[in-house]
Design brief:
The protein is of the alpha/beta class. The chain contains two helices and eight strands. This is VOC family protein.
Length: 128
């Protein structure tokens, strides 16, 4: 088997409109398409970052909570590369986003930090 690339990452939100606003207005993603699936009472939005398809944003009625701390078993987090972690952190904080402190990756020496989407999903900023 030959994998070509990661196609998408799926995120289930408890409040679709709130999470859509976060990914579009705070993180700068672009909404490519959006559909309401009546049979599932579910919204699905395709979001892109810098013209590349990246995130499928879903809503479902009463989704169960999932452990989301970065050290929980399973998919750990979604990381975004930025030119300056410190500047991006300051911008996120100015928009009321919960952010951890700046860190240095002990393996690469690069700046990094975790922040959280409206449902507490751990996201990471990583220095280019």
């Amino acid at each position: 088997m030959k994998l070509n690339r990661v196609h998408h990452i799926a995120v289930i939100a408890t409040d679709y409109d709130r999470s859509k606003a976060f990914y579009l207005d705070v993180l700068g993603c672009e909404l490519l398409s959006e559909v309401y699936r009546a049979e599932r009472d579910s919204w699905m939005g395709d979001l892109a970052l810098n013209g590349q398809y990246l995130i499928e944003l879903f809503s479902f009625p009463d989704p169960p909570l999932r452990a989301s701390w970065p050290e929980a078993t399973g998919l750990r987090h979604l990381a975004f590369e930025v030119d300056s972690v410190a500047d991006a952190r300051a911008e996120l904080l100015s928009k009321g986003v919960r952010c951890d402190e700046l860190r240095t990756d002990p393996h690469t020496g690069k700046a990094m930090m975790f922040f959280f989407d409206p449902d507490g999903l751990p996201l990471e900023l990583y220095q280019a």
